[in-house]
Amino acid sequence: MGSHVSRIAGVALLFCAGIASAATPLFIPLDKSSIVRKSDATDIPVAFNRPGLENLVPGDEVELTLPNGSRHDYVYEHSIAHGGGIVTWIARSPITGDNERAIITYGPHGAWGWMNTTYGAYRVYPSGEGYDLLAPRLRQDFSPTFPGGDAITVEPDAPGIEHLKGIPTHVPAPISKAGGFFKVTPVPTVRADVMIIYTKDLAQKLGVGLMPMLMNLIATANQAYVDSEVAITLRLVNATMLDLANTNGSSAILSGMRNAASGADVGLNAIFQPLTWGAGTSIRDQVGADFVALVRDGPNDTGGIGNLAFNTAIYPAVQSIFTTAYSVNNFCVQGCEQIFAHELGHNMGNHHDTATIAKDGGGTTTIATGAFPHSYGWYSCVNGLTCNPYLPNGTGGACTASGPYASCLTPAANDFGTVMSYIGPRIMKFSNPNLNNCVPTGGNAGAPRACGGVVPAPAPGGKTANNALSMNDSRGSIAAYRNETIANTPGSLQFTNMVFSGNEGGNITFTVSRVGGSSGAISVSYALTAGSAISGTDYTNVSGSLNWANGDTANKTFMVPISADALAEDIESFTATLSTPTGVPGVYIGYPATATGLINSPWPIGGTMPTGFTTSGPNAWTTATDQVFEGTTSLRSAQAFGNFGAGNAGISDLVYTANFSAGPVVFSYRVSSYQNQGVFQFLVDGVIVHTNTGESGWTSFAYDLTAGSHTLTWRFSNNMPSACGSGGWSPPPVGGAGVCADRVWIDAVALPANSPPTNPPRLANISTRGQVLTGGDVMIAGFIIGGSAAKTVVMTVAGPSLIPAGIPNALANPQLTLIRQSDGVVIGTNDNWQTQTVPGHVSSIQAAGFAPAHPNEPALIATLAPGAYTAIVQGVGGTGVGLVGVYEVNTPEVPMINISTRGQVLTGGDVMIAGFIIYGDNTKSVVVTVAGPSLVAAGIPNALMNPQITIVRQSDGVVIANNDNWQTQTNPAHVAQIQAAGFAPAHPNEPAVILTLPPGAYTAIVQGVGGTGVGLVGVYAIP
């Protein structure tokens, strides 16, 4: 039948042997004639259908529909099976060859990749279960915000690691060739091993897309070597997660990787010792990794940074003086394959293009080199550069140290830079003057240029840009930075998903895959950890191991039986964890190493908004039955609308705040929106940790919370001015106008158990001493229980027991009445604490440790709901000095917010004294005030007209603050702070102080300036 040629032409896959048959398209096509480009719009993502790749054979020609409605051809070359259902698919343009490639890595739960086309660069990224998007790829910027560039020269290796390096490994030459171009690749090809450190932040953002992304990085770099005629191939031998904050600078991390961080960053050295620089003990040395690359979604200080190798020994010599082959790669959520290849290039001895080097050097005619004088990147600009990097800084026309790097002036169609160049647009090739086929993405295919050559003027003459020659000549050293310890990779073991679910009375089946190798027999242990689901009650605790034989790459499973308790309860969860990989050397745990088991239950319970979830306004979330993940009810956002012309998005927020135990928050969601305009975001404490857009289908997401208080926000943000389902939009929504709903649904939300802080800073015990008279001059203490739960307190009044303390005229027989302020109901009254309405309260008061010292003194114990309460103190047949106190018994997380006491302020020993104690693990901010003149308006006779307050620390008797008139403060800023806290006194003659106090006991002394009267002292906790 002749040669086999097949083609995906828009909507059909055609096997051309005289007969055409329809098949699944790779990208859901758009009718090109219907495309309307809006002035304020960009390319719109289209759905990527990865199963179509599996039907191709090498040599098939593929036509892909792009987001702008155009079509583009590729020739499928080959694929790489990584195991676990993860495959990398590699294709090239039939016109521009390897200048325009598509390298897509796809797995059971998402695809990751990129493609260069005549119309620009595009990114394939996972959007939902079985659903991916193709969208324009943002340009990656290597340029650092710190001086000196991203190529860091370092000192030679310490002599103590000589035994770890020096023997290169030869492998068969790669089989992938672009076809039709000049070949100069030498033999033998050497293999270099790579270890990747990925941050926890990156892993949680990519989820099960992480491993395909890592595989794509390696495949992309290897294809760049093939296309550049470089006899090096990379192999991933380890991937390790590191919980490292993105606030750490890239250069500081790079220093820490080689034990050279200093100053405020010195702690990074210890973090990286077990990973990179601990000689013989580090993971790097154990797996024989020639290179270690850290990947993250890091700060905007640089695209990446890497150590620059120089003066390496020349192949076939067996020693290299430089092996700190470390790099930091940022922006890896949007894709960092160019950065990854660039920074590894520095580790291999490649430098930038000479214009960039000159600019970093402040304008120079002496151009630093890498391993060789020809180890430069290459650029080609028809119209020259925007500035002259070879002029000294400050010279007219120079590229200034603080200014941008040089770029092509008046860009022409075929301007380009190679991998090591800062000048773009970049192609995925290293400089090689023997190749004459370099055309950038979007360039003119009819006019390719050389991929390297003599360094252009005004650089010093006699230098050439030939990274390929540099890498080929030193490849023996490059592949021997560490001796190979893993002959054949056994691969990594990880869960295939982050969430597995099951119903009560059934089982939850967890699946584990082997990815990245198949050599040798290996095993991994698994175990369960309780979360909101309780072991033995909600599920049967299981543990054990999973085993793979040599060559076995099939997925393995274990089952967890779920109890049938038939209780109406929230969705509960537990965690499964993989650990202790064993077998042949090199096996490691991949990502995810933990997975959440969800016990399905109708959510929300009763079909109503769950307790604690808040939403408000015209864009409030509601319960819904039109879309559910399980059961019959979900929560649904409003159809919020904005105005993309003005940049104003409509926002619909659902918020939940609580104090959590450490563990995963897990939920399922569905987005139905106009792609890139209606966006779902999940935020933790105001930081976006997950986002999606378009038509996602039901998708599950899990995020690990640390113990403590967190605010979770589910947000639908929409720039569309009207409904995406109206049918008037072009291009149409990905799912079609009949489906698009401008909404987000969430369902099956499982939260870590609420966990109160063990010892939060708080007002725990508060008391006031003063005169207890009659009528309107009895003592009145008010306090507020905050929070959302009840709190048990003990209230007492000391009278007779004050006499031994030297207090004259003590109240001989005090009485206490507790009133709820919301309705005036008397909750309790007591005269003598050993006589209680509920006899058991006597022992409860004693057990709490607050039993009065005299039988004539009253006490009450009560469990009080949040709210305001009043304790009235009076004498039975007499007057005198009393001390009223309110004391915490339990639930430290439920605060006593405020306490205030009204009474007579006299002189000498009869001033009013308020005592309070700060408990907890941290400081607490309070405002202490005294009301006097403002009481007159409330009908209080004989008010104290000019009160004064003094705060004393009881531990040493030191006066820490005093005030007479609140608007006159020792620190003038305190006036505004008191106002902002909401506790500013109502009269200028009334005092106030604002303090941040460590745990301890304090006394507030209230007295009058030139007079006596009724005062109201208050101690108020600032949230």
Question: What is the secondary structure topology, with strand pairs?
Answer:
Layout: E1 5-9, E2 12-16, E3 46-48, E4 61-65, E5 71-83, E6 86-93, E7 97-107, E8 110-117, E9 120-128, E10 131-136, E11 151-153, E12 169-171, E13 189-199, H1 200-206, H2 210-227, E14 232-242, H3 250-257, H4 267-277, H5 283-287, E15 291-295, E16 304-308, E17 326-329, H6 337-347, H7 354-360, E18 379-380, E19 416-417, E20 453-454, E21 464-465, H8 467-473, H9 475-478, E22 492-495, E23 499-502, E24 507-515, E25 522-530, E26 544-548, E27 556-561, E28 572-583, E29 588-589, E30 594-599, E31 613-614, E32 622-624, E33 634-636, E34 650-660, E35 663-672, E36 678-684, E37 687-693, E38 699-705, E39 708-718, E40 743-750, E41 762-772, E42 779-785, E43 791-798, E44 814-820, E45 826-830, H10 840-848, E46 859-864, E47 867-875, E48 880-888, E49 896-905, E50 912-919, E51 924-931, E52 947-953, E53 958-963, H11 973-981, E54 992-997, E55 1000-1008, E56 1013-1021
Parallel strand pairs: 1-4, 11-16, 13-14, 13-15, 15-17, 22-29, 23-30
Antiparallel strand pairs: 1-2, 3-10, 4-5, 5-6, 6-7, 7-8, 8-9, 9-10, 12-13, 16-17, 18-19, 20-21, 22-24, 24-27, 25-26, 25-28, 28-30, 31-34, 32-33, 33-40, 34-39, 35-38, 35-40, 36-37, 36-39, 41-48, 41-50, 42-47, 42-49, 43-46, 43-48, 44-45, 44-47, 49-56, 50-55, 51-54, 51-56, 52-53, 52-55
Helix pairs in contact: 2-6, 3-4
InterPro entries: CalX-like_sf, Calx_beta, MetalloPept_cat_dom_sf
Keywords: Calcium, Repeat, Signal
Protein name: Calx-beta domain-containing protein
